[in-house]
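[job 0412] stage=fold_complex status=start
inputs:
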Amino acid sequence: MAKDQKKQPRPKAETPKGFRDYFGADVTERKTMLDRIAEVYHRHGFDPLETSAVETVEALGKFLPDVDRPNAGVFAWQEEAVPGGGSGDWLALRYDLTAPLARVAAQFRNDLPAPYRRYAMGPVWRNEKPGPGRFRQFYQCDADTVGSASVAADAEVCAMLADALEAVGIARGDYIVRINNRKVLNGVLEAAEVRADQAEDVLRQIDKFDKVGREGVLALLTVGRKDDSGAEIDGVGLSEAQAQPVLAFLTSKGATNGETLVNLREAVGASVIGLEGVDELAQISDMLAAMGVGEDRAIIDPSIVRGLGYYTGPVFEAELTFEILDEKGRKRQFGSVAGGGRYDGLVERFTGQKVPATGVSIGVDRLLAALRAKGLAGADTAGPVVVTVMDRDRMADYQAMASELRAAGVRAEVYLGNPKNFGNQLKYADKRGAPVAIIQGGDEAERGVVQVKDLILGAKIAAEASLDEWKAQPAQTEVARADLVAEVKRILG
Amino acid sequence: MAKDQKKQPRPKAETPKGFRDYFGADVTERKTMLDRIAEVYHRHGFDPLETSAVETVEALGKFLPDVDRPNAGVFAWQEEAVPGGGSGDWLALRYDLTAPLARVAAQFRNDLPAPYRRYAMGPVWRNEKPGPGRFRQFYQCDADTVGSASVAADAEVCAMLADALEAVGIARGDYIVRINNRKVLNGVLEAAEVRADQAEDVLRQIDKFDKVGREGVLALLTVGRKDDSGAEIDGVGLSEAQAQPVLAFLTSKGATNGETLVNLREAVGASVIGLEGVDELAQISDMLAAMGVGEDRAIIDPSIVRGLGYYTGPVFEAELTFEILDEKGRKRQFGSVAGGGRYDGLVERFTGQKVPATGVSIGVDRLLAALRAKGLAGADTAGPVVVTVMDRDRMADYQAMASELRAAGVRAEVYLGNPKNFGNQLKYADKRGAPVAIIQGGDEAERGVVQVKDLILGAKIAAEASLDEWKAQPAQTEVARADLVAEVKRILG
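[job 0412] stage=fold_complex status=done
writing structure:
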């Protein structure tokens, strides 16, 4: 009795809140996609890097505005301080793949090739409130070049991104890589005589260009506007004259890169940094052409402003341009699946040295969703041929059949549940998505034959055929045992 | 000044203690190996499962003997209890792939096929004291069949394990899968009239069979012995007569499974459970033969006692039998790279229902070390062709060359560092393991040619050739720009 009272309640079998498990095709489809991307990155000279999932909170840094709550945004814990064991350090799960790259680039700076091209693919963790489609563990897929100040590195990343999208199956014309440059915007701000203390506000407002359009941004940059709810949004306080170059920048995209560059040169006026930015875009445009990447695949587009606040030079974004139906059945463009740009502060936190870097991150779940929407995520997800068990004393015979099929390259398995109820075996084959079931009872064994049941044809007949057609059982064939493999291969085509 | 005084010291760029990063070939060689194993598992009808890295401590359970220290053995942290947000639950990183399988098998028992064959590959985390070659994050690679009581499932796992070892490159004859059965041991203990309270001690002692041999185990089972340091080790207190069947069991391996089975039948005497165990081994032997897995690949071996304390039926272990040199230069067999067996308690903690399961876990790092020792870990780890930069205004030309090479399937990149010092570019190519460097200065560009430098031949000549031979520069060829790709492909063979 005393023991019973102490008995613990059974634990709940639940994935922790905000986390999920991936089954079968979830795993293989993502893997197939990432393998194809890795193949492109590899061919471009990028090397894989797999850092530990755990970092010291000190090295991660960034997510720690509040030292009293070192786990805001990350999953963190303190090591026990044990002599010879735990260090008492705070450790945390990485929240992205860039912070670990920064740590590695600093830690191994004497061993790594310079410049260092690396790609990384793997889970990251965010200690955030989960929501629909918003998980606390998800995949990232990054490629970065560390230690090159040349815009050739940026052009290469853009070309590689376009190649990667095609490698996973996105057709040319169904995507576009858009390229902008923070330096051009800086030049525009200079030309418009925007004060340094206004620059951040300007960036925040032009970030809304997508949503509120030209007139909306004009209002936001000057006197303010009412939003949809009727609330007054303060303006930045620029004059109309100051706002004009900013708007000119945002709307400077021409029909070709050549036209866009002319417009941009006008928008930056005499600003040295602005002209440097335009020259960089011109170089990137030339390089892309040299690499055989036409403007139908990657194009200069100053309306891309996402990330301009973070990046220091070229920025890029890959967008899928085909339409899908949203949850309300409305057509909309699929939208952004990757973004990146040039940043300088990567290693500086650790070494004090500015190291130029540029890179791109593909939104793994979004891209996979796009492939599924287009029916392009097809990894080999076909179920196995199921060898049913009519006579449990002849398991070895059934296993021999499955082995022969596998030796011929056919995915195959023997039913391993309780064989008593044959209906359960066919239900199992159905649940497994089996294309074919093999049946051999004692009678068939004596006659040296097997029944080969085409489950796909069978399902079709069950759905469409008349009773007579169904009775004729064209989906089930008796063949000699020696012809088993050939017959299955015939059915699988 | 005030600002300077507040300045934080720079963070240390260090992988946390006990963790490591994987670079380049570390990643691709492991990936290639796991891909080949996954292909074998897939062909056998196993589906991939990727559970979240994070579990509730409640679901992980097992590692919590001490409720005051819920993080003993695992990395654990408590969620903040926030309305609508964190649950206040203790979360932890998974310490293996079996505990998450148990949780999934219970949570999704109505959705998963039954039996459920799944494989899983991924990192696990242990909050243990790190040591040489002993990390706190490492890979596991498991395959399990949940919900089948049939020894056909065990036989299948053994056959699949043998196939997997060959798929990664281990030659037939260089490995052996050894199979034993806990039930046979139970029968032997019954036959020897070992008391229930002695059974665990007996298991602990026979676990030392590998080290101390027949006479050592005899002493340990009876009156005890002195270990190498001279310390007295207590014996279990069996009589010599009781110890005999146990020793007979351990040494019952014959030249063939047939002989071994005869010996085992003798060792278990009239024990019902023992005879059941011997029958199971006989069935497994027959099934392996039917699957074309000969006794040169998988064999019954009662001397395999590792895991007999944990498993409830068949146990298996894969051993690599070729010799390597250990750290002291002595020849020794490589040893165990995988192990598994049948266990019943998997889902019981959650549902109260016993669900039979069997599976195998491959030691990823050990198997990879074995492949490297045999020169079999060869993923495509060749460095890229490096296109050097003689004239930084012609970056687009160099990028066009790299693009053409890539389009022809050749891994290639443009040097992206500061091109001023050409020696640095060749040093870079060397560090990258580049097989070929491409050189085109202004003069060559005008003449429409490029220099193609065979770096592998070059290194060989530098090491072996006379001065005259070296001056002849046979490792560097001038070709027409249009022949660049063909010449590189010729060199790469």
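[job 0412] summary: The longest strand of chain B covers residues 331-343.
[job 0412] exit 0
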